[in-house]
Amino acid sequence: MRPLIAGNWKMHGTLREAGALAEAVRAGATAGLPADLLVCPPFPHIHIVAAAMLGQTVAVGAQDCHAAGKGAHTGDVSAAMLRDIGATHVILGHSERRADHGETDAAVRAKVEAALAAGLVPVVCVGETEAQRLAGEAEAVVEGQLAGSLPDGFAGIVAYEPVWAIGTGRTPTEDDIAAIHGTIRAALVARFGPAGQATRILYGGSMKPGNAKAILALAHVDGGLVGGASLVAADFLAIAAAAG
Prior knowledge:
The structure is a single chain. With 244 residues, the protein is of the alpha/beta class. The chain has one domain: TIM Barrel, CATH 3.20.20.70. It contains 11 helices and 8 strands. Strand 2, helix 2 and strand 3 form a beta-alpha-beta unit. It is globular, with a radius of gyration of 17 Å.
């Protein structure tokens, strides 16, 4: 399947900086790139980035949404609101959300259901901590998160992000990445059949131009969820180019 390189801009940038980054990505997103592109700016910047990408091949997503369609949820944003301002995707269950906001698998699952109902493509994150990996629990943790976070009839994207590799510059070995991606694929196929075989599985965790080609060549790695490197258009586009 065609790889997807997704950029998670996290809580970075002013509106002006977001617009400039979007324009730079747009300018470099030539027809020859061997991967699809997705950028996920902070909530206040989605509209300006979506406007910059209008009519282009670069998709725009959000970094979270609420499980409810509307209501008394101060500070939250619904999936329908995101769709209304130009988002087509939404990252859900990122390890930083799970850790900083105490999001459980059940909470993530409810958000995934809301995203699907609103017509958004959910990018659901799973991954183990360093302590869990050292204890030999990585595969069991990931399988449990998949079972709890994905609803029946799931139609979206899964991103594997070893928590200990996010923003640290450290990455698992290629064998470790391939093993977990194989575990994820097997779990998806066992539950969803052919749809599970067709589900994109992204790798996230200190992916950069220097290691992207080797990671993207691994079995069942269908793209990347890129953090820090997505804030530099040239690096983000170089990672996309490495998918070829």
